[in-house]
Amino acid sequence: MEAGREVDFLSLKSNPNYRMKVFALLSFVSLFSLANGQTISSPEYRAWLYTNDCKELNGKDKDKANAEYFMGNDFFSTDVYVEMEKMGFKSIKQVLRAQSMSNVDKATKYLTWVKANQSKFTDKAKLISAANKAVSDQSLVRYLQTKGTIDIYKLCDCFHQNRSKRIPDEKTFKASPIVVVESIDLMAKATCLKSLYKTKGWFF
Amino acid sequence: MNFVLYFLLIFNFESQAYSSSDLKEMLSCEIGTDVPIKKQSALTKYLLNVETLRELERQKFKHLSQYKLFLEEMIQLNGIKIAAGKSRLSEETRALFTLNLFIDFMKEEGFLNPVSVCQCAQAIGQSKVDKKPEVSSKNLEHAQIHEWFASCIKKQFVPTMYNNPELEDKYN
After folding, report:
1. Between chains, do B167 and A85 touch, taking CB under 8 Å as contact?
2. Which of A35-39, B68-72, B164-168 has the lowest average pLDDT?
3. For residue B166, which residues of chain A lie inside 8 Å, CB to CB?
4. Cα–Cα distance measured from residue B134 to residue B127, given in angstroms and rounded to the nearest whole number
5. HSE-up (13 A, CA, CB side) for residue B44
6. How far apart are the first and last CA of chain B?
7. Within 10 Å of residue B145's Cβ, how many Cβ atoms?
8. CA-based Rg of chain A, rounded to a whole angstrom?
């Protein structure tokens, strides 16, 4: 563009080449935005969708990511176990035992921590709160992972792939009643836990 | 743990129904498909009852936490199995299912043999009645039965799964 020369926007807009370029540019921006998830308008869908960054579970801050992911997704609930049982999973007893063992593990760590640190606290409530904080990452997931019972990265990946088969986009999400979405989540969790639990040789 | 207590209270509510029955009736240790469920439920009632747990605490049972953990597992397993069942079970079938699951689970894990615990409690009761004829089986109190069950659980319980010294209950 030459200096001092005014651009005639009106005539430019009527130019078919210009319109083609603008259309191409807008299409590109739209496609780019879609690929980056920027066209998502509903916060509910965003919340539902953006729980799926499984890479973070093996990343730098993995302990925090694991705790947040598994606390938020509630994989190890009675509802999920009921679905697994319906699907013919034969080891519910072991799953429950794992839960108990992780509770025992957590309780033991809690008691050990309290014993080692109680002299530092004069206030009992503060001691309890600090002890809870110190053992908060000793969740069932961590327990299962350290025992080699489940690969949590695979579990996360399987879960998101499985439910994305049923709800591929925002349109389908919005069209689905909340109970349907919840049921899809539940079934995906049960399917993945059932296929990924390594039940042979548990605790024996 | 609230869920456990709720379940225990459900088992508890019938306890007065047996107050005028004789010892053998109150403490039937028979199990099997041909035995009426009401007769069999006495067995689990005393094993699972919250009063028995309180009695175990009073008797300073050092594996009480483990026993409670086990009960919690059993109750959750029972709930899952019943919820996953294809058909709705009648109350009686459900009670029978729970009873069998409980007995199998306990035996499998090697914690207790419920029948043998029951027979042990029955023997204590019989010896009390034999020693003091004025204690007729008709005025036996349920508190006493919980006490007998607790001492038999204490004697026979084998801490197989959660054998962790840190978890042993300590009493002053």
Report:
1. no
2. A35-39
3. 107-108, 111-112
4. 13
5. 27
6. 23
7. 26
8. 26
Identity of residue B31? I
B139 Cα to chain A: minimum distance (Å): 41
Q: Which distant-in-sequence residues (6+ apart) come within 8 Å of B97 by Cβ?
A: B78, B81, B82, B89
Question: How far apart (Å, rounded) are the C-alpha atoms in residues B31 and B75?
Answer: 20
Given a cut of 80, is residue B167 above it in pLDDT?
no
Report how far residue A27's alpha carbon sits from residue A25's, in angstroms, rounded to the nearest whole number. Answer: 5
B33 DSSP 8-state letter? T
Alpha-carbon distance B84 to nearest alpha carbon in chain A (angstroms):
5
- With contacts defined as CB-CB under 8 Å, which chain B residues touch A82? 80, 83-84
B45 Cβ contact list (under 8 Å, min separation 6) = B11, B12, B14, B15
Q: Quote the pTM value.
A: 0.72
Out of A86, A100, A107, closest to residue B84 by CB: A86
CB contact under 8 A, B166 and A112: yes
Mean pLDDT, contiguous 10-residue spans, chain A (204 residues): 40 48 44 49 78 75 77 85 94 85 81 90 91 75 75 88 89 91 93 85 50
Min Cα separation B69/chain A (Å)? 7
All residues of chain B having their beta carbon less than 8 Å from the beta carbon of residue A83 are 84
Q: What local confidence, expressed as pLDDT, does residue B172 receive?
A: 63
Residues B84-140: tens digit of each pLDDT: 987 787 888 888 888 888 888 888 878 888 889 989 998 888 887 777 666 555 566
Cβ contact (<8 Å) for A100 and B79?
no
